[in-house]
Write a structure and sequence with these properties.
heterodimer, A: about 325 residues, 13 helices, B: two-stranded antiparallel ribbon, two-stranded antiparallel ribbon, 15 helices, globular
Chain lengths: ~325, ~400
């Protein structure tokens, strides 16, 4: 166990090192330069460009820039090229906003997909199962932005509540319950959107996992012993079917950053995805690279957690 | 088995009755037709391809000609597209679907080809039907080319990793590859005399390695040079670690970054989506190859003296292709979604050209006045992606022998 942990940590650090190199190269070798971001701006004289390049070490060779960038990142001194704000502080502020979406979305995904999937598996081939299957394909296939507009039309015309942004402008002096409901409405729609694909995929996975376990010998034995159906399903089958999902807790971590770009831009939600999108448009390399680095760290931590959890939960696994 | 009443020989010999003679393909087709959803998926997929191809022909400027020594020679017809997706009729903006054109306001060449606006018009009075036709081609090609690139890279990387995986990379290979890459990086940075030296050293070194191995048949190196032949990491480890590295990037964010930095073009999108989605195919192919190379028919082929590449292409890839095909079908669906998302955000094809994503993105401002501008492209993307997903899942069920007995 300890040797596995040590080995995988070393391996992950090496991977991270290469990720940092690759992302740095991808961004810096792409055509165009950040100093040319606004050539039409009359304030952007050649001297300004030169000062800009010097200020951010853009006149140095690439490997020096690489060293500068990552040493700044680890000492927390990286600043955004756009507004000279510290990058980590900016990301942290946006991260707090994204975190809400992530938490609500994850709760929705995990609480809804299990009942749906289990019921599908238990009534295999029934009308319920078939329609659940079809709907999950529908939800996987629907483009997020299109679904977003359907939901916006539905909610706005039906319930007459505003949904764009994090809260309604000028709600500061409203009574507490109204303020709270306003926040809930604003939060609900984007989180539902973020959760739809997850619900569809996870419920399909729960179904197939459950079906596989239901066909095992020990389930037949349990039934042969004369145990009531509930006990067979929920005690013998479900517990074993749950095993792979424990490990998936680790894999949801990367969802903190990726995948929310489109939804956050539609709903004008000031989260990480939108910040990254704006940074891409403004060629704000420090922010792009930092977000990329953090998300790579999250992926690696996620896989690490899932490996360890797998070993803890299932003693048969020896990595 | 029930005997067929049309069969002339009712009392046929036993071996005739015993086994239904069907090839694997016929058997798969029979199973496939039973899966209604998958069959519907295939039908929609074929219809969509036909629409996209005819749409491409009908909406582009037909021009027959050729180029000799840099001189353009047009021999015939330079005609306007039959459905012109870029024709602006400002007097006819935001007409609902199936609306008749206002004959007084339009000159004869501005009239829609079908005599009515089948899908309505957008805020510039362009015919949405023509624009949808034009966009279909973009979706189709992005899906197929991107997935094609991903599958080819996946098969090559997975194949090398699964078949030659146990071989080790030797120190000299690494050395010369580093030289080669240093040369390429220096070339990109345009550091004059150095890049040629590094590149040359790398290329010659690699050639030397191969001649050493194949021409001189592994003569042992003299004394201190044998340090170059120390085995380091296996090829398998190398490739799979590279896959791990690629999986660390948040894919949509990476695609967005690269597409935003590169000049706007549909080919860039195809290539970028392809280059960021080959990891799944690589893993599938590698897993299949690892199990296939232990099987008897591969050993037999090797015993017959069949070359490695022939074994790979003739014997192993046909057996390993099934899961790749399934993931490719589903990959097309997600590539279409990714492209739609990118053009929704305003990246990709430059503006006058229509894609389903940018029709929706342009139409969203009029969502309450002109809902068809959102719903028509949205539903189109949904139906096509759904068709690919259903078809892929159906394919997976059929190609999975464990599930066959179910029917």
């Amino acid at each position: 166990m300890l040797s596995f942990i040590g080995r995988s940590i070393i391996q992950k650090i090496i991977t991270l090192f290469f990720v940092s190199i690759v992302s740095f190269l991808v961004i810096h070798l792409a055509p165009g330069e950040p100093s040319q971001v606004d050539p039409l701006n009359p304030k952007f004289t050649p001297e300004m460009v030169e000062r800009f390049r010097k200020e951010f070490h853009l006149d140095k060779p690439l490997y020096i820039q690489y060293l500068y960038f990552y040493s700044d990142l680890f000492t927390g001194k990286t600043i955004s090229w756009k507004d000279n704000q510290p990058v980590l502080k900016k990301i942290w502020e946006r991260f707090k906003n994204s975190l809400w979406l992530f938490i609500v979305g994850t709760i929705l995904t995990w609480t809804l997909s299990f009942p749906i999937g289990i019921r599908s598996a238990l009534s295999r081939g029934s009308v319920y199962d078939r329609s659940a299957t079809f709907f999950s394909y529908l939800l996987i296939s629907i483009p997020g932005f299109f679904f977003a507009y359907i939901l916006i039309i539905f909610v706005v015309t039906r319930f007459h509540v505003p949904v764009i942004g994090m809260d309604t402008f000028g709600m500061g002096d409203a009574s507490l319950p109204r303020w709270f409901m306003d926040r809930v409405w604003h939060l609900l729609i984007p989180s539902v959107l973020g959760a739809t694909a997850g619900i569809a995929v996870l419920s399909r996975y729960v179904r197939s996992q459950m079906l596989e376990v239901e066909g095992q010998d020990y389930v037949r034995t349990a039934r042969a012993k004369g145990l009531p159906e509930e006990q067979v399903h929920y005690k013998h089958a479900l517990r074993n079917a749950l095993l792979p999902f424990v490990t998936m807790f680790g894999l949801i971590l990367p969802g903190l950053i990726g995948g929310s770009v489109i939804i956050e831009s539609i709903f004008a939600w000031p989260g990480m995805g939108r910040m990254a999108y704006e940074a891409i448009l403004a060629r704000d390399y420090p922010i792009i690279l930092t977000v990329n680095f953090i998300s790579a760290v999250l992926v690696l931590i996620g896989t690490f957690i899932s490996d360890v959890l797998y070993m803890v939960v299932d003693p048969r696994i020896r990595l | 088995m029930k005997s067929n009443p049309k069969e002339p020989h009712q009392s046929a010999p036993v071996e005739d009755v015993a086994a239904p003679k069907r090839s694997r393909l016929q058997e798969s087709w029979r199973l496939f037709k039973r899966n209604k959803l998958a069959f519907a998926g295939l039908t929609i997929f074929l219809l969509f391809s036909a629409t996209a191809i005819t749409g491409f022909l009908l909406t582009s400027r037909i021009q027959i000609g050729f180029e000799v020594l840099g001189i353009d020679i047009k021999i015939a017809i330079v005609s306007d597209p039959i459905f012109d997706p870029a024709l602006v009729r400002l007097q006819e903006k935001l007409r609902p679907p199936l609306a008749r054109p206002n004959l007084e306001a339009l000159s004869p060449e501005e009239l829609p080809t079908l005599g009515l606006y089948l899908f309505g018009t957008d805020d510039l009075g362009r015919d949405v039907f023509s624009r949808m036709l034009q966009g279909a081609w973009v979706s189709l090609t992005v899906g197929f080319v991107a997935v094609g690139i991903a599958v080819i890279i996946g098969i090559i990387m997975g194949g090398i990793s699964g078949y030659f995986g146990q071989k080790h990379v030797q120190l000299d290979h690494i050395l010369f590859l580093i030289l080669l890459h240093a040369g390429i990086v220096l070339l990109l940075l345009w550091i004059r005399p150095l890049w040629a030296a590094f590149l040359g050293a790398g290329v010659w070194g690699i050639i030397l390695c191969f001649t050493w191995k194949y021409v001189w048949k592994r003569r042992s190196l003299p004394g201190w040079l044998s340090i170059l032949h120390i085995d380091t990491v296996s090829i398998d480890t190398l490739i799979m670690r590279f896959v791990d590295i690629m999986l660390c990037f948040p894919s949509f964010f990476l695609i967005l970054t690269v597409v935003a930095l590169l000049p706007a073009s549909i080919y860039n999108i195809m290539i970028v989506i392809g280059l960021t989605s080959w990891m799944g195919a690589t893993r599938f192919v590698r897993a299949e190859f690892l199990s296939l190379r232990e099987q008897d028919f591969v050993t037999a082929a090797r015993a017959l003296g069949v070359s490695d590449w022939r074994i790979i292409f003739r014997h192993m890839i046909p057996n390993a292709i099934a899961p790749v095909l399934v993931s490719a079908t589903i990959g097309i669906a997600s590539a279409i979604l990714t492209e739609a998302g990118l053009s929704f955000l305003g990246f990709g094809v430059p503006p006058p050209h229509a894609t389903w994503g940018n029709i929706l993105s342009d139409g969203k401002r009029f969502i309450f006045d002109a809902p068809w501008l959102t719903f028509i492209p949205g539903v189109a993307i949904l139906v096509v992606v759904l068709a690919f997903n259903l078809f892929g899942e159906g394919l997976r069920d059929i190609l999975n022998p464990k599930l066959r007995e179910r029917y």
